[in-house]
Design brief:
The structure holds two protein chains of two kinds. Chain A is α/β, with parallel strands linked by helices. Chain A has eleven helices and nine strands. In chain A, strands 7-6-5-8-9 form a five-stranded parallel sheet. A four-stranded parallel sheet of chain A has the order 2-1-3-4, sandwiched between helices. Chain A is globular, with a radius of gyration of 21 Å. By secondary structure, chain B is an alpha/beta fold. Helices cover 28% and strands 27% of the residues of chain B. Chain B starts with a strand and ends with a strand. Classes of the chains: A alpha/beta, B alpha/beta. At the A-B interface, helix 1 and helix 11 of A face helix 2, strand 4, helix 3, strand 7 and helix 4 of B.
Chain lengths: 339, 179
């Protein structure tokens, strides 16, 4: 610890140059951290931990607006980005976050690694661990890949998407975007529309949004519905009009053709006909609705371009917030666990 | 728990430092105040108010969080990081004369971190340091340009600056840390 010159951390103070108001703010002296070594699932996080990550991410955003977009915080730390699945946004976002914190980063992708020679995930992780990285960011097509990696190594593991299970940093960046736009989660109607069955984004978002008190409605065709959504406090519907009606936030999910090994949809055109987000359908939502999409978008399938590029869309804000959220997660995990 | 500066003394000290700034700088056009979180921020804002009253010139004020620049962050293998708060410097610091403000000057490590942080924002013409209390025991070659009160202390003691904006009261007290 630094000696206690200015030990307490403050809340926001008044605007510049004005007289001082005698408001007493709580002083948070104790540093806070996450209770877990790794970030594998939203279900491991308490409400307070989620808010800590969002607050830290909000502060991290400022680093990206500086002339020199880099702070020395993770100097000398090595972060491996282990990506077994294709990714543009998530991998780039993690890499930028790591570089802005001055970590040494390297990328291992399935196609360029010994995975093509038949090496297992466990062996790959153990070999990486032998080179003593400090953190490993894992994306894999199988649920639980991050958990397996976390059990095998001392390095801190961040789940960057494991099969159809979870994508915690996506849900966190979605939450940051919603909080910036709406300022709250309570009494907010968030409708998630699309391929629910195959979506790790849905699973992480449901856990997070319910933990923060939002009302969640999930909508999709019967073949892509998840069983027993009510158990997670989610209202499920196959009617897009019902989902859009009075919604504050509409989150569209990609139709994941690569995961469909069965007859889930007659055709993409039919899906668009019944579930595609169009400007006409959007009129039923709240006037200040925001449109979100985790990317990559299938224009003309789950969303029409007029909506994706329209005034309600915050899709690129989500991408921008992704870097800040990942910086926050890396910073907090690097600090170690809370007692 | 002796009170070494009472409410009126804190106010008078800030006014005196503002006068010293005016005396040294004459023209305030290219000055900017930057307060180090936590308690440097209210001190910087009060200095801005005092400078406005004395000269009629309003000096831009920024907020600096040095957490990401601390030299002890990665020294402790276990134990959570301090909470990060926003840095808000909404003006270019290039070619400005910066007045860096903190409550207590002790080892100098906070100031070292703040200097590193500031230099990432640009190239100021100069940086001067203002502190409400200098309690000694420097571990780095750092010296303040304006000192509210020199307070010789022992290492066992801790100096607590309390400000209305944070604690609801203006005072500086010395506490025996071994209590």
């Amino acid at each position: 610890m630094l000696p206690t010159d200015g030990a307490g951390r403050d809340p926001d103070t008044q605007p510049a140059g004005r007289a001082v108001s005698p408001v007493v703010f709580p002083v948070l002296d104790a540093p806070m951290g996450l209770r877990t070594k790794d970030l594998l699932s939203i279900s491991d996080l308490s409400r307070e931990e989620i808010l800590l990550i969002l607050d830290t991410a909000e502060a991290m955003k400022e680093v990206g607006s500086r002339p020199i977009k880099k702070v020395p915080t993770l100097r000398g730390k090595t972060v491996v980005n282990l990506f077994f699945e294709a990714s543009t946004r998530t991998r780039t976002s993690f890499e930028i976050a790591e570089k802005r914190l001055s970590a040494d980063t390297l990328n291992v992708t399935a196609s360029g690694s010994s995975v093509v020679k038949g090496e297992s995930l466990a062996d790959t992780v153990l070999n990486l661990e032998a080179m003593a990285p400090d953190m490993i960011v894992v994306r894999h097509a199988s649920a639980g890949a991050g958990h397996l990696a976390a059990r095998l190594c001392r390095a801190r593991v961040v789940n960057a998407g494991d099969g159809m299970h979870e994508h915690p940093t996506q849900a966190l960046l979605d939450a940051l975007t919603i909080r910036e736009r709406k300022g709250r989660f309570e009494n907010l109607k968030v409708s998630i529309i699309g391929d629910l069955l195959h979506s790790r984004v849905l699973r992480s978002n449901v856990l997070l949004l319910r933990a923060l008190g939002a009302e969640v409605c999930a909508c999709g065709p019967t073949t892509l519905m998840l069983p027993d959504m009510a158990r997670f406090g989610v209202r499920a519907t196959t009617s897009i009009d019902e989902a859009v009606d009075g919604a504050d936030v509409i989150m569209l999910l990609r139709i994941q053709l690569e995961r469909m090994r069965g007859c889930f949809l007659p055709s993409q055109r039919e899906y668009f006909q019944f579930f595609g987000m169009t400007a006409a359908r959007l009129r039923r939502a709240k006037p200040d609705v925001i449109i979100m999409h985790p990317g990559p978008m299938n224009r003309g399938v789950e969303i029409e371009s007029e909506v994706a590029d329209g005034p309600y869309s915050v899709i690129l804000e989500q991408v921008a917030n992704g870097v800040a959220v990942r910086m926050a997660v890396l910073y907090l995990l690097a600090g170690g666990q809370q007692e | 728990m002796p009170v070494v500066m009472a409410t009126d003394q804190v106010a008078r000290t800030i006014t005196r430092i503002a006068h010293q700034v005016v005396e040294r700088h004459h023209v305030l056009d290219d000055l900017a105040l930057i307060g180090i979180r936590t308690r440097g921020v209210p001190v910087a804002r009060r200095l801005a108010v005092a400078l406005l009253e004395i000269t009629g010139a309003s000096v831009p004020t920024g907020v600096l969080d040095i957490t990401l620049y601390r030299d002890d962050l990665m020294r402790h293998p276990v134990g959570p990081h301090p909470i990060l708060r926003k840095t808000e410097i909404e003006f270019s610091i290039d070619d400005r004369r910066i007045l860096l403000v903190d409550d207590v000057l002790y080892t100098g490590r906070t100031i070292r971190a703040a200097l590193d942080a500031l230099i990432d924002f640009g190239r100021p013409r100069s940086i001067e340091l203002i502190v409400l209390v200098d309690r000694g025991h420097r571990e780095l070659p750092i010296k303040a340009d304006y000192v509210g009160k020199n307070l010789p202390t022992s290492l066992r003691e801790s100096v607590q600056v309390r400000l209305v904006e944070v604690e609801g009261v203006d005072e500086v007290v010395i506490e025996d840390a071994s209590d």
